[in-house]
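Let us practice reading a record.
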Amino acid sequence: MENEIKTELRPEIEQTEGNITVKKNKTIDFLAKIICLLLAFFLWYYAVSIDTVIQEEEFVGIPVEIVNRGGFAVLSGDGMAVDVTLSGNRNTMQKIKNSDIRAYVDVSNVTTAGEKFFDIVFKLPNGVTLEKTSVGTVTVYLDNKISKTIPVEAKLFNYSMSPEHTLNLSDIPDIVITGPEQIVNSITRAVLPVDFKDSEITSGRIYSGKVELVSEGGTELSESDRRYIRLSSDTASVTVSLYGNASVPITVSFKHGIQKLENCTVKLGRKTINVYGEIGTIKNLSINCVLDEKTLKSGTAVNWAIGLPSGVQNLDNVSSVKVTVTLKNYTETVLSLPVFDEDGNVITTISARFRGEKDAMTRFTEASVKATARMPEGETGTVSAPVTFEFFGEFAGNVYEIYKEGSPYTVKMAAKG
């Protein structure tokens, strides 16, 4: 009885000689197949519907190119944009960006300047159709392209300065203008405006800025016209220099720094010279007459050539100044000295003149100084070698040789090897 009840409750289980065998339920198996078929159908339908549904989408601000301009420049019609509406299946439309759409007009057939009308050509991605556009045609004005060179002038405003001073402006390089013939020919000047913003000019400065173009009638070229031209440089620089007069002092110094001015009486033919030049250059300018004490003749006047920096004008129109230096309490003596080479060997004897303060010169002897000749580097054979003097003790920096006939001492010397 127990076995019979189990069989009725679980018909999928069969008992055979003590073993249990599991049987498939045919109803459940059939239902599972039906569900799978339904799911497959819905997936297929969804995929088909997504790929076949046609939709429209608007793309705004597509730039319109002007291509194949040849030798013409565009006066109008450049830089415009168009809105387009495209249609296509949903998958395709979802992938399209503005950059995938190209709009252009081809002006390659234009042979004369003037206003022309062109249809906009569209190049679209595969699988889409152009439904409508905000603009279908473009008006383009074309002209011949030319170049010309014009100077740039600086225009200063909003400044003040001392009435004693004047301004000087450095030259600004010319610029080359390239663009439509009509616009380029209308440009008469190029100006670099320099605004000092109500300040006083007390020194020079460099100013850089954008070049303004002036057309016929003196008006500035409009931005709408300027965008069609090209400049070799949009900016320029000018050096604004402040000029004036100055009285430049004349001073005296000694080349070797051994002779002291306090031991001299200096007489100048003039103590100043009047000049005109850039304020920054002349305000601290001085004319220094550098005299060589080793060639100096006490009490004898010499003419010192006046040299001025470039750009400084000599208003007194004098080319030299007379300088007379008289030594105080100085005396000279002549010594006969052996001349040594760099190895300490005596090669000859010379007679040399020396100058110093009287009191010190009473103690100055051959033992107070040493003469050495040095072969110039790279020389061969027998040459004239310069002689240098080394002073010892109290005489170092206070006694110096006087050049013979205005030139340093030399001796004949043979190169080694």
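A brief commentary: The first strand starts at residue 13 and ends at 16.
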